[in-house]
Design brief:
With 343 residues, this protein is mostly beta strands. 13% of the residues lie in helices and 39% in strands. Strands 16, 18, 21, 22, 23, 24 and 26 form a 7-stranded antiparallel beta sheet that branches. A hairpin with a 7-residue loop joins strand 19 and strand 20. The longest helix has 15 residues. It is globular and about 65 Å long.
Length: 343
Protein backbone atom coordinates (compact mmCIF):
# COMPACT_ATOMS: atom_id res chain seq x y z
CA UNK A 1 0.00 0.00 0.00
CA UNK A 2 1.36 3.42 -0.93
CA UNK A 3 2.21 5.74 1.94
CA UNK A 4 -0.35 8.43 2.60
CA UNK A 5 0.84 11.78 1.29
CA UNK A 6 1.44 14.43 3.98
CA UNK A 7 -1.41 16.90 4.34
CA UNK A 8 -1.10 20.62 3.85
CA UNK A 9 -3.07 23.25 5.78
CA UNK A 10 -3.49 26.91 4.99
CA UNK A 11 -4.47 29.10 7.93
CA UNK A 12 -8.02 29.29 6.58
CA UNK A 13 -8.10 25.46 6.59
CA UNK A 14 -7.27 25.50 10.32
CA UNK A 15 -10.13 27.94 10.89
CA UNK A 16 -12.47 25.65 8.96
CA UNK A 17 -11.67 22.78 11.35
CA UNK A 18 -13.38 24.73 14.13
CA UNK A 19 -16.68 24.80 12.25
CA UNK A 20 -16.57 21.10 11.34
CA UNK A 21 -18.35 19.59 14.32
CA UNK A 22 -18.21 16.13 12.75
CA UNK A 23 -14.41 16.16 13.02
CA UNK A 24 -14.71 16.00 16.81
CA UNK A 25 -16.58 12.69 16.50
CA UNK A 26 -13.96 11.04 14.27
CA UNK A 27 -10.72 9.32 15.13
CA UNK A 28 -7.75 11.59 14.39
CA UNK A 29 -5.25 10.91 11.65
CA UNK A 30 -2.53 8.47 12.61
CA UNK A 31 0.15 10.21 14.71
CA UNK A 32 -1.99 13.34 15.18
CA UNK A 33 -1.97 14.30 18.86
CA UNK A 34 -4.00 16.61 21.09
CA UNK A 35 -1.98 17.81 24.07
CA UNK A 36 -2.02 20.37 26.88
CA UNK A 37 0.53 22.50 28.68
CA UNK A 38 -0.72 23.62 32.06
CA UNK A 39 0.17 25.31 35.32
CA UNK A 40 -1.28 22.23 37.04
CA UNK A 41 1.43 20.65 39.16
CA UNK A 42 1.82 17.16 37.73
CA UNK A 43 3.20 15.82 41.00
CA UNK A 44 -0.41 15.45 42.14
CA UNK A 45 -1.07 11.82 41.32
CA UNK A 46 -3.08 8.85 42.51
CA UNK A 47 -0.91 5.83 43.31
CA UNK A 48 -3.09 2.80 42.55
CA UNK A 49 -0.60 0.36 44.08
CA UNK A 50 -0.92 1.94 47.53
CA UNK A 51 -4.38 3.51 47.08
CA UNK A 52 -2.99 6.89 48.14
CA UNK A 53 -2.98 10.40 46.74
CA UNK A 54 0.54 11.78 46.47
CA UNK A 55 1.32 15.51 46.67
CA UNK A 56 -2.43 16.19 46.53
CA UNK A 57 -1.93 19.72 47.86
CA UNK A 58 0.61 20.65 45.17
CA UNK A 59 -1.89 22.92 43.42
CA UNK A 60 -3.24 24.62 46.52
CA UNK A 61 -0.40 27.14 46.60
CA UNK A 62 0.48 29.91 44.19
CA UNK A 63 -0.57 28.23 40.92
CA UNK A 64 2.75 28.83 39.24
CA UNK A 65 4.02 25.61 37.70
CA UNK A 66 6.18 26.20 34.64
CA UNK A 67 8.13 24.02 32.25
CA UNK A 68 11.47 25.74 32.61
CA UNK A 69 12.96 29.19 33.20
CA UNK A 70 15.83 31.30 31.93
CA UNK A 71 17.20 34.80 32.52
CA UNK A 72 17.99 37.40 29.88
CA UNK A 73 17.88 41.19 29.47
CA UNK A 74 14.11 41.09 30.19
CA UNK A 75 14.64 39.40 33.56
CA UNK A 76 13.42 35.97 34.55
CA UNK A 77 11.39 34.22 31.84
CA UNK A 78 9.03 31.36 32.66
CA UNK A 79 8.25 28.84 29.92
CA UNK A 80 4.55 27.99 29.71
CA UNK A 81 4.76 26.24 26.33
CA UNK A 82 7.63 24.94 24.21
CA UNK A 83 6.67 22.60 21.37
CA UNK A 84 8.31 21.60 18.11
CA UNK A 85 6.61 20.38 14.97
CA UNK A 86 3.65 21.54 12.91
CA UNK A 87 0.26 22.19 14.48
CA UNK A 88 -1.88 24.84 16.12
CA UNK A 89 -2.92 26.13 19.52
CA UNK A 90 -6.62 25.28 19.80
CA UNK A 91 -7.48 27.09 23.03
CA UNK A 92 -5.87 29.09 25.82
CA UNK A 93 -7.29 29.69 29.30
CA UNK A 94 -5.77 32.07 31.85
CA UNK A 95 -7.07 32.37 35.40
CA UNK A 96 -6.10 36.04 35.40
CA UNK A 97 -4.06 38.36 33.19
CA UNK A 98 -2.27 41.29 34.84
CA UNK A 99 0.30 43.84 33.73
CA UNK A 100 3.32 41.55 33.39
CA UNK A 101 4.90 40.86 30.03
CA UNK A 102 4.75 37.78 27.80
CA UNK A 103 6.07 36.59 24.46
CA UNK A 104 4.33 34.43 21.87
CA UNK A 105 7.02 33.07 19.56
CA UNK A 106 5.87 31.35 16.34
CA UNK A 107 8.51 29.56 14.25
CA UNK A 108 11.19 31.57 16.05
CA UNK A 109 9.54 34.96 15.43
CA UNK A 110 7.95 36.99 18.24
CA UNK A 111 4.33 37.83 17.48
CA UNK A 112 3.39 41.48 18.13
CA UNK A 113 -0.16 42.63 18.85
CA UNK A 114 0.81 46.14 19.89
CA UNK A 115 2.46 45.63 23.26
CA UNK A 116 4.48 43.35 25.48
CA UNK A 117 1.95 42.68 28.25
CA UNK A 118 0.24 39.29 28.39
CA UNK A 119 -3.00 41.28 28.09
CA UNK A 120 -1.79 42.80 24.82
CA UNK A 121 -1.34 39.34 23.34
CA UNK A 122 -4.41 37.57 24.62
CA UNK A 123 -7.28 40.05 24.66
CA UNK A 124 -9.49 41.38 21.84
CA UNK A 125 -7.32 44.38 20.96
CA UNK A 126 -4.99 45.34 18.11
CA UNK A 127 -5.50 42.96 15.20
CA UNK A 128 -7.94 40.99 17.37
CA UNK A 129 -10.27 43.95 17.90
CA UNK A 130 -13.91 42.92 17.60
CA UNK A 131 -13.35 39.17 17.92
CA UNK A 132 -15.40 38.88 21.10
CA UNK A 133 -16.77 35.47 20.15
CA UNK A 134 -13.26 34.00 20.20
CA UNK A 135 -11.36 36.16 22.69
CA UNK A 136 -13.09 37.27 25.88
CA UNK A 137 -12.93 37.80 29.62
CA UNK A 138 -15.36 35.81 31.79
CA UNK A 139 -16.82 37.01 35.12
CA UNK A 140 -14.53 34.42 36.77
CA UNK A 141 -12.38 36.49 35.90
CA UNK A 142 -10.78 34.00 33.50
CA UNK A 143 -9.52 34.93 30.04
CA UNK A 144 -10.36 32.75 27.04
CA UNK A 145 -8.49 32.79 23.72
CA UNK A 146 -10.04 30.43 21.14
CA UNK A 147 -8.60 31.88 17.94
CA UNK A 148 -6.35 29.14 16.50
CA UNK A 149 -2.63 29.96 16.34
CA UNK A 150 -0.88 27.81 13.75
CA UNK A 151 2.83 27.06 13.48
CA UNK A 152 4.95 25.10 11.02
CA UNK A 153 8.09 24.44 13.08
CA UNK A 154 7.64 25.50 16.71
CA UNK A 155 5.64 27.53 19.17
CA UNK A 156 6.71 28.99 22.49
CA UNK A 157 4.94 31.06 25.16
CA UNK A 158 7.15 32.83 27.69
CA UNK A 159 5.69 34.63 30.72
CA UNK A 160 7.36 37.14 33.03
CA UNK A 161 6.83 38.30 36.59
CA UNK A 162 3.38 39.81 37.16
CA UNK A 163 1.78 38.32 34.03
CA UNK A 164 -1.15 36.71 35.93
CA UNK A 165 -2.11 33.39 37.50
CA UNK A 166 -2.89 29.86 36.20
CA UNK A 167 -2.98 28.75 32.57
CA UNK A 168 -4.04 25.86 30.33
CA UNK A 169 -2.89 25.74 26.72
CA UNK A 170 -4.44 23.11 24.43
CA UNK A 171 -2.73 22.31 21.14
CA UNK A 172 -2.70 19.86 18.24
CA UNK A 173 0.43 18.41 16.65
CA UNK A 174 0.09 17.02 13.14
CA UNK A 175 2.02 13.99 11.82
CA UNK A 176 5.59 14.60 10.73
CA UNK A 177 5.80 16.05 7.24
CA UNK A 178 2.51 17.97 7.47
CA UNK A 179 2.77 21.43 5.93
CA UNK A 180 1.11 24.22 7.94
CA UNK A 181 0.87 27.91 7.12
CA UNK A 182 1.99 29.73 10.29
CA UNK A 183 -0.19 32.26 12.08
CA UNK A 184 0.04 35.47 10.03
CA UNK A 185 1.54 38.64 11.44
CA UNK A 186 -1.30 40.43 9.63
CA UNK A 187 -4.46 38.89 8.22
CA UNK A 188 -4.96 38.94 4.47
CA UNK A 189 -8.45 40.00 3.29
CA UNK A 190 -9.34 36.31 2.82
CA UNK A 191 -8.05 35.39 6.28
CA UNK A 192 -9.78 38.34 7.94
CA UNK A 193 -13.09 37.36 6.35
CA UNK A 194 -12.66 33.75 7.52
CA UNK A 195 -11.76 34.88 11.07
CA UNK A 196 -14.80 37.18 11.23
CA UNK A 197 -17.02 34.38 9.92
CA UNK A 198 -15.74 32.03 12.62
CA UNK A 199 -16.22 34.74 15.26
CA UNK A 200 -19.85 35.23 14.15
CA UNK A 201 -20.31 31.45 14.13
CA UNK A 202 -19.36 31.27 17.81
CA UNK A 203 -21.43 34.32 18.74
CA UNK A 204 -24.57 33.26 16.89
CA UNK A 205 -25.31 30.12 18.86
CA UNK A 206 -28.98 30.20 17.87
CA UNK A 207 -27.95 28.46 14.65
CA UNK A 208 -27.24 25.41 16.78
CA UNK A 209 -30.14 25.55 19.23
CA UNK A 210 -32.77 22.86 18.83
CA UNK A 211 -36.16 24.53 19.31
CA UNK A 212 -38.19 22.88 22.02
CA UNK A 213 -41.39 21.44 20.49
CA UNK A 214 -44.60 22.93 21.80
CA UNK A 215 -45.85 20.45 24.35
CA UNK A 216 -46.90 20.23 27.95
CA UNK A 217 -44.14 19.49 30.50
CA UNK A 218 -43.78 15.92 31.71
CA UNK A 219 -43.40 15.08 35.40
CA UNK A 220 -40.58 12.87 36.65
CA UNK A 221 -41.46 11.58 40.09
CA UNK A 222 -38.89 11.45 42.89
CA UNK A 223 -36.77 8.33 42.38
CA UNK A 224 -38.19 7.62 38.91
CA UNK A 225 -36.03 6.54 35.92
CA UNK A 226 -37.48 7.23 32.48
CA UNK A 227 -36.29 6.66 28.91
CA UNK A 228 -36.70 10.04 27.20
CA UNK A 229 -35.13 9.19 23.84
CA UNK A 230 -34.47 6.01 21.85
CA UNK A 231 -33.48 5.36 18.25
CA UNK A 232 -32.04 2.59 16.08
CA UNK A 233 -29.50 2.50 13.27
CA UNK A 234 -26.38 4.64 12.96
CA UNK A 235 -26.08 8.38 13.30
CA UNK A 236 -25.24 11.02 15.88
CA UNK A 237 -26.89 13.19 18.46
CA UNK A 238 -26.22 16.74 17.28
CA UNK A 239 -28.19 18.69 19.89
CA UNK A 240 -29.64 17.77 23.29
CA UNK A 241 -32.12 20.18 24.89
CA UNK A 242 -33.55 19.88 28.41
CA UNK A 243 -35.98 22.51 29.67
CA UNK A 244 -36.89 22.86 33.35
CA UNK A 245 -39.98 25.10 33.65
CA UNK A 246 -39.85 27.53 36.57
CA UNK A 247 -36.05 27.31 36.81
CA UNK A 248 -35.72 31.11 37.00
CA UNK A 249 -37.99 31.18 40.07
CA UNK A 250 -35.92 28.63 42.00
CA UNK A 251 -33.60 29.61 44.83
CA UNK A 252 -29.86 28.97 44.32
CA UNK A 253 -30.18 25.97 46.65
CA UNK A 254 -33.07 24.52 44.60
CA UNK A 255 -31.13 24.99 41.35
CA UNK A 256 -28.11 23.29 42.87
CA UNK A 257 -30.18 20.40 44.20
CA UNK A 258 -31.77 19.84 40.79
CA UNK A 259 -28.49 20.18 38.88
CA UNK A 260 -26.81 17.61 41.12
CA UNK A 261 -29.76 15.28 41.72
CA UNK A 262 -31.26 14.90 38.25
CA UNK A 263 -28.96 12.59 36.29
CA UNK A 264 -28.65 11.69 32.61
CA UNK A 265 -27.48 8.33 31.22
CA UNK A 266 -26.68 7.57 27.57
CA UNK A 267 -26.40 4.10 26.05
CA UNK A 268 -24.89 3.34 22.65
CA UNK A 269 -25.12 0.34 20.32
CA UNK A 270 -27.39 -1.81 22.47
CA UNK A 271 -25.13 -1.83 25.53
CA UNK A 272 -26.77 -2.19 28.93
CA UNK A 273 -23.93 -0.14 30.50
CA UNK A 274 -24.14 3.65 30.14
CA UNK A 275 -21.33 5.27 28.16
CA UNK A 276 -22.37 8.58 29.76
CA UNK A 277 -23.61 9.12 33.28
CA UNK A 278 -23.62 12.53 34.92
CA UNK A 279 -25.72 14.95 36.92
CA UNK A 280 -27.43 17.21 34.37
CA UNK A 281 -25.62 20.26 35.72
CA UNK A 282 -22.23 18.73 35.02
CA UNK A 283 -23.33 17.23 31.70
CA UNK A 284 -24.46 20.63 30.43
CA UNK A 285 -21.36 22.40 31.79
CA UNK A 286 -22.70 24.04 34.95
CA UNK A 287 -22.40 21.68 37.94
CA UNK A 288 -24.27 23.92 40.41
CA UNK A 289 -26.86 25.33 38.03
CA UNK A 290 -25.32 28.74 37.36
CA UNK A 291 -26.03 30.36 33.96
CA UNK A 292 -23.46 29.45 31.30
CA UNK A 293 -23.07 30.79 27.77
CA UNK A 294 -20.70 28.92 25.48
CA UNK A 295 -20.77 27.45 21.99
CA UNK A 296 -20.79 23.80 23.05
CA UNK A 297 -22.80 24.02 26.30
CA UNK A 298 -25.37 26.50 27.57
CA UNK A 299 -27.58 26.96 30.61
CA UNK A 300 -29.93 29.94 30.46
CA UNK A 301 -31.53 31.82 33.35
CA UNK A 302 -34.92 30.35 32.47
CA UNK A 303 -33.77 26.74 32.52
CA UNK A 304 -32.74 25.77 28.99
CA UNK A 305 -29.94 23.18 29.25
CA UNK A 306 -28.26 22.78 25.84
CA UNK A 307 -25.47 20.56 24.51
CA UNK A 308 -24.17 20.87 20.96
CA UNK A 309 -21.52 18.15 21.10
CA UNK A 310 -21.82 15.67 18.25
CA UNK A 311 -22.16 12.18 19.78
CA UNK A 312 -22.06 9.29 17.27
CA UNK A 313 -23.49 5.79 17.59
CA UNK A 314 -23.16 2.78 15.29
CA UNK A 315 -26.32 0.85 16.17
CA UNK A 316 -28.86 2.74 18.23
CA UNK A 317 -28.91 5.15 21.16
CA UNK A 318 -30.98 5.53 24.31
CA UNK A 319 -31.16 8.33 26.92
CA UNK A 320 -32.54 8.06 30.45
CA UNK A 321 -33.27 10.69 33.07
CA UNK A 322 -33.18 9.63 36.74
CA UNK A 323 -34.69 11.86 39.40
CA UNK A 324 -32.48 11.18 42.40
CA UNK A 325 -33.92 14.09 44.41
CA UNK A 326 -36.77 13.89 46.91
CA UNK A 327 -39.08 16.14 44.88
CA UNK A 328 -40.94 15.69 41.60
CA UNK A 329 -39.37 17.50 38.61
CA UNK A 330 -41.26 18.91 35.63
CA UNK A 331 -39.29 18.86 32.38
CA UNK A 332 -39.37 18.92 28.60
CA UNK A 333 -36.77 17.12 26.51
CA UNK A 334 -35.77 17.12 22.84
CA UNK A 335 -32.96 15.58 20.80
CA UNK A 336 -31.82 16.36 17.27
CA UNK A 337 -30.03 13.64 15.30
CA UNK A 338 -27.81 13.81 12.25
CA UNK A 339 -26.23 11.42 9.80
CA UNK A 340 -22.43 11.24 9.48
CA UNK A 341 -20.71 11.66 6.13
CA UNK A 342 -17.87 9.37 7.26
CA UNK A 343 -17.88 6.24 9.44
Amino acid sequence: MAAKAPRSYRYTDILALYEERERNALLPDRDERCLQSSSTDSRSVYDEATDTYLYWDANSGDGYCYHGAFTDENGVNYIALDVKGAGFLSGLWFGTLNEGEADLIIDGVRFDNGGRRAKDLFEARGKFEGLDGLIYNTPGPAWIFDLPISFSKSCRIVLREGWGLYYHIDYVLFPEGTQVEPFPSEFSPEQRKAVETLNAHFLNQDNYVLPMPASEPERLRAGEIRTVFETSGSGALSSVHLLIPGFSDMTPYERERLSLGLTISMYWDGSDQPAVWAPVGGFFGSPLGDPLDSFALTLTEDGHFLSRFLMPYADGARIELHNETEADIDFRFAVETASLSRP
